[in-house]
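Problem: given the chain below (182 residues), write out its structure.
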Amino acid sequence: MRYSEREASSIIEQFKKSSIDDLDMLFNREALPGFEALEGDTAGAILALNPENPWWLKCVIKIAFKSPLGQWIGKKFITPFNESKKGHGINLFKSRYFPQFFRFDTYIKNAYVDDKPCLALDYRSYHLLIFGLVDELREIREGIILGRAYYKFPWRRQIWFVGYFVLCVLDTNFPRQKAPIT
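Solution.
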């Protein structure tokens, strides 16, 4: 299932009302998204951040994903992935200067939270600001993907849960609206 931008916005607004506990239950449904279902652009939004995130991490998230320089609006899945093959994608921003930024690799792995299959979006090979970030995705309804973001701090052994985000797969018959840049 693919959605128009208007439908995706409505779905995203519904998910913004969810608590971390509600999102945990949804993520535990274990549905693995396939490339055919994800290929192309998605609309996305950050839903709920871990309340224990350090203050400086909250600042980095705000600057990198929610600032006038570039508001994060989703992801683009570019090449196929499967259990033995990595794919690639990139984040999408409402920005005149950086409409696409923060590339990632895609592959299937077991999730940190329950050791069951998920789609990983791994930023570590690109050595940018978000070099320790790994997102884990599961399909919670057809065309709706829930993601858990994790970060590996260099000084910690364990990976840190950052928060949740949602993606809605966009229909290519409804081209993405050009939003005014503020």
